[in-house]
Write the structure tokens for this entry.
Amino acid sequence: MKLNTMAAVMTFVSKIESESARFYETQANVFPELKDTFLAWVKENRKFEKLVKRTYFGVITDTLESNYCFETLDSEGYAFPTNLADGADPSEATGRAFEIESTIKRFYLEAARLSDGLMADIPRLFKKIAKEREERCRILSAA
């Protein structure tokens, strides 16, 4: 799906933050050794979603919404699986988490790049969230 407006991007942000949070909640229940990290990320995902909404509603105008296009941004390029095979081990869970985090980071960076010339608040927030995702990738790589 083409994400032509900030409203569409915001809807997609809600989707990816919710889906990844569900993955972390599920895996936290399966792998006790990942529980603390994954449950902390669930809370953080919800915070990211709220921050995007708050920032969006704080700066949006009809003019911006009608002219705020992410012409080349397509949600299909940022899909990620959230399931694991039965009997998966913790390394498979962290591998999948790395894939999820890398994909979401890539989305935020591209959305920030495309919106950078239109306003400051949204791309700044997207870059901040991408940086947090990069830190998660670093943690997962070290695991």
